[in-house]
Amino acid sequence: MSKAQQLRQLLDRPGLLVVPGVYDCISAQLAERVGFEMAFTSGFGISASTLGRPDYGFLTATEMLYTVQRMTQAANIPIVADLDTGYGNALNVIRSVTDAVRAGAAGVILEDQEWPKKCGHFQGKRVIPAEEQIAKIRAAVRAKSESNLVIVGRTDARAPLGLEEAIRRGRAYFEAGADIVFVEAPQSVAELQAIATALPDVPLFANMIEGGKTPVLSAQQLEELGFKIAVFPLAGLFAATKAIADCFRHLKDHQTTEGFDKLVNFQQFEKIIDVPKYRQLEREFSPLPEED
Fold first, then answer.
1. Pick from 237, 288, 225: which is nearest to 43 by CA?
2. Predicted structure pTM score
3. What is the 3-state composition of the chain as percent helix, strand, coil, each rounded to the nearest 5?
């Protein structure tokens, strides 16, 4: 069974799916190791970790898909790839989606911002005409062919055009072929409820960013509102950032890591990256005796 088919089975199950955002191979492997059944890539996280730059459209399609492919190879769970705007018009979307399928993505997110895009929780976003995005969604459906790829249609219209237009676009993207609708950055529980009330027959995506424009709710609250997926795209990145900063501060202050208790040790990390598996392969194929 393909990863896309596995993802569709997860979506067919009753109840809300709580999903982490991942931004590199280690975070993808950790998501799988702790028991998550799927993950979403974070364009914000990939831009930050790869370039050290904000999510301002600096990442190219090649850089994004390279990272996605490495993550799909590193983890055995379905991964949905953030493809930003598809990196151009409908023809570019066809290429981006085709490449995402080849890279092993189980799904993709396509948004309706103008390029260069911005993080959905930044100021100053602009969106393309709805008709243009509808054509891009239709192009993505054509490009996915028989792959079962899941398409998440995202609209960033809430900030520049208002909630009513964002909901209208969400409905239009669903009717164009998106499997899931993602209305980005609603600004209150009332707005989350309005989205769910207006789109009761549509699988809905909630984006939970700590410190972002949307209130962070529990899984139970989001399920009661009517959402299907709750993604926490930056929790891992934010946690890792704090842990690294704390570790480096301790090292700078004390000139040692002794006394810093928020580390895995060498042996624990070996298990995360499957060193025992590769040691076994090395023994199997090496003509030389193993060193102590």
1. 237
2. 0.94
3. 50, 15, 40
Could you list the pLDDT tens digit for every one of the 292 residues in the chain? 899 999 999 999 999 999 999 999 999 999 999 999 999 999 999 999 999 999 999 999 999 999 999 999 999 999 999 999 999 999 999 999 999 999 999 999 999 999 999 998 999 999 999 999 999 999 999 999 999 999 999 999 999 999 999 999 999 999 999 999 999 999 999 999 999 999 999 999 999 999 999 999 999 999 999 999 999 999 999 999 999 999 999 999 999 999 999 999 999 999 999 999 999 999 999 876 666 5
* Burial grade of 244 (CB within 10 A; 0-12, 13-18, 19 or more): exposed
* Whole-number Å distance between alpha carbons of 262 and 231: 25
Residues in the chain: 292
Which phi-psi region, left, alpha or beta, contains residue 264 (left: φ > 0; alpha: ψ -120 to 50)? beta
Please compute, for residue 253, the number of CA atoms within 13 A of its CA located in the half-sphere on the CB side.
9
**Which residue segments constitute the domains of the chain, with CATH numbers given?**
3-240 (3.20.20.60)
Q: What is the distance between the alpha carbons of residues 121 and 100, in angstroms, rounded to a whole number?
A: 25
